[in-house]
Structures are given as structure tokens and as C-alpha cells.
Amino acid sequence: MARSPLWGRRIHIAGSVHADPSVASPEAVVEAEALIATLVPRLVQLGANFVIPVDAEKHHGDGRPVCLDWQVWDAVASALAQRPSGAPAPLAVAVQHHKSEAQVPAAREALWDSLRLTEHVAIENAAQWDMNIKRMEAAARRGDILLAIGGGEGVHYLANLYHEAGKPIVPLNLPLAPPDQGARKVFNFGLSGNNARRLFQVREGPEPHHWLNRLNFPVRRSIAERAGDIIELLEALERPRAFVVRLLNPDLPDYLEVDRFFDSIVQPVVESELGFKLTVIDGYQQFEHPRIDQEIFSKLHRSGVVIADITGVRPNCFIELGYALGRGHPTLMTARAGTANPFDTATIPAHFWNLSGKQEDARDAFRKHWKAAIGRPPLVSPDPLIP
Questions:
Q1: Is the CB of residue 212 less than 8 Å from the CB of residue 220?
Q2: Last residue of a domain, one of 171, 203, 236
Q3: Is 359 helix (H, G, I), strand (E, B) or coil?
Q4: pLDDT at 300
Q5: Cα dihedral sign for 169, 172, 173, 175?
Q6: CATH number, residue 283
Q7: Any bridge partners for residue 269, and if so which?
Q8: What is the domain count for the chain?
């Protein structure tokens, strides 16, 4: 059976419950908890992973939870036995700060202790001067998809972080916050004009605007049906973008070899094995911007990975390579064997490819370069002035 497109992708379910029970009623909270309890195990069964904060469990005066993070942890733990064999580890990235362990509620200690030291959980610490902001930044860095429920300014901040990184944002219009706050504000923004495409894009089928309307659940829609709708959208989302910088002029002598390299080596590995979508801006696709240079740098800016091939030593390729390096993207530099590598890029590890041998050997060499380059730190460290 074919794997789900969600295999190994990290889903970040974020949000909170409004303090006013006339806005977020106890019945609405119970429905949201039931949705999480239904949705998360189904995602686990599909091989999806998660990003989940670890913190105190606060409640409003009437007992309604402030956040739903521990409900997500509960649902993940309950579904461990249903996780498919071979699913990528870890199942969950736990984002915490230096006080988190002391703040784990007594009622959740057994749950947390059963998970935190296992292969299912990787702990990301964000012990910085502004812990909430740093934890959100860490979560957005590790997450692949933001699923927003309720919330307020924190959801707005997370949505901006995910958007800046080119990652999809799926807001739910659940009555856990006022219509002008949190996920509901993002949802209503998406319904205006062509804004839905700025929240997420899909591989094929209905447009994002259609999907948002489908997620505007009527009361009669059952919890199971709502979870099914959400999963259908998550599976339809466009895969993470691997932006391609390469020679595109067919009149130049290296063009055919570069084209062959990307068609026979890069595309099968990156799309079929690694789950990315190669993005090439050559003027033949539908644009979101009026000018091709805007289209190039907008897509490049919000890509997850950049593959820059400098064969032909074209100035535009070096401009885009420099932008990718300055942006801090994981960047793979490649070139045909024999390419003269200019001084400014000579110290950057590069993959010099050769198509004269066996195809599988060429693919394996590219895989090794990907593995080495993908986790390399950026050229300029983003460390803050005051840690």
C-alpha cells in the first residue's frame, strides 16, 4: 500500500481557549478535545510526526483548559501501538524550556515519563530570555505544517513564522476564540480574495479557497467527519519546496547535460525518495507575481532547501546561490565535473557530478551530498546578541 504524503511530516497543533466562556463555551472545548482525540491517532496511523510544547497545564476558573497541548500528548500516547513499522523517528519533538520539567502537572507525570526518554520523543530546549517567543520559534523551525485552533496573538506570531518559511498554515474556524483573534482571524483572512493560497497550496484538485470552505464545519458535521476532512486536506498539501537554481538557456552548450542531470538524478531522488517538490522558475508556469524576478526570489525566499547548480558559471545562478546562503537555507551546490569554481564559492562543499558512469552510482553520490549538506549550519550564525 502506498504511503501517505504525511509520512514523516511534523504537524504542529497550536492554539488556546479564550478566557470568556461566552466566546469559548465548555461544549465547544469538549468538541475540540474530541476532535484532537480522533484526529491525532489517525495521523499517527498514517506515519505523521508532531511538534508539541511541554509546559504547565493551566485552566480557566471554570475548569476549561487554557491550552490543548496535553490533550495532544494524550492522543499521541494512546496511539503508539498503531504507529506503522518503519515510520520515521522521532514521533514527536517536545519543545520545552528550563522550567518545563518542574512545571509538568502531577496528573501528567506518568504520561510524560513514559515518553520523554524513549526513541519516540526528541526534546528541543528553548531556554532563552523570552521563553514563549523562543519556544514558538523552535516549534516553527521543527514543524512542517501548522494546524491552528483557537488562540490569539501567539497563533498570529506562529502563522507569520510558518509563512516566512514557506510552510503551510491550516486554520480551523472553531469557536474557541473571537472571530477577530487567533485561528479564526487567520481563517477569515484566508476566505478573502486569493489569500487562501498564501496560507497553503495543494498538489492538485480543488483550490485552497474550496478547502477552507470545507473546513468551515457546520454543527451537524460529526467529529469523525471533521477529522476526515482535515486529513484529506493535509494529505493534499503541496510537498516542501526544493528550489532549483540552474542553467535554463537551451542555446548554451552545457544545457543538455544539466537537464539530464536534473531529470535522471536529482528529480527521482528528491521527489520520489525524499518527499520534496522541485521548483524551477523558467517562465512556463503560472506566476503569483507580475515579474519573473519577483517570482524567483519569492519562491526562493520561502523554500525549505535550495539546490544550486553552477554549471556554465552564469551570473544569475551565483546571485540566487548567494541569496540562499544569506537566507540561511540548507543549500546544496552542484556542478558538472570540470566546472571552474570561482574563489568566493571554492570553500563551499560542492558535488561535482559525472553522468558517464552508471546511473545508480550517480544517484548515490548525489544522495551522499544531500545527507552531508542538509544539516550543515548556515554561513552566518543567527545567534542573538543577548542569549
A1: no
A2: 236
A3: helix
A4: 95
A5: negative
A6: 3.40.50.450
A7: none
A8: 2
Alpha-carbon gap, residue 326 to 320, rounded angstroms: 10
Report pLDDT digits (tens) over 141-194: 999 999 999 999 999 999 999 999 999 999 999 999 999 999 999 999 999 988
Closest by alpha carbon to 175, among 325, 26, 6?
26
Is 349 a domain residue?
yes
Nearest by Cα to 158 from 194, 179, 183: 183
Backbone angles phi, psi at 148, to 5 degrees: -100, 135
Q: How far apart are CA 328 and CA 216, in angstroms?
A: 37
Asked if residue 383 belongs to a domain, the reply is no
54 & 194 share domain: yes
Residues 313 and 213 grouped into a single domain: no
Answer positive or negative: Cα dihedral of 299, 301, 304, 309.
Answer: positive
Helix, strand, or coil here: 125?
A: strand
The answer to whether the CB of 269 falls within 8 A of the CB of 366 is: yes
pLDDT for the residue numbered 129: 57
**C-alpha to C-alpha distance for 12 and 53, rounded to whole angstroms:** 9
Contacts of 377 (CB under 8 A, 6+ apart): none
List, in sequence order, every beta strand (DSSP E) within 190-314.
Answer: 241-245, 277-279, 305-309
Q: Residue 302 domain-assigned?
A: yes
Which residue range(s) make up the domain with 72? 10-236
Give, in order, the Cα–Cα distances in Å from 246 to each of 201, 253, 333, 356, 377. Answer: 24, 13, 10, 20, 23
Report the sign of the C-alpha dihedral through residues 176, 231, 189, 216, in that order: negative
The arithmetic mean of pLDDT across residues 95-105, rounded, is 86
Question: Tell me: the pLDDT tens digits for 302-331?
Answer: 999 999 999 999 999 999 999 999 999 999
Other Cβ atoms closer than 10 A to 126: 21
Arithmetic mean of pLDDT, 188-204: 94
pLDDT in tens, 250-264: 999 999 999 999 999
* Residue 50, in any domain of the structure: yes
183 with 174: CB under 8 angstroms? Answer: yes
In terms of DSSP bridges, do strands 277-279 and 305-309 run parallel, antiparallel, or are they unpaired?
unpaired
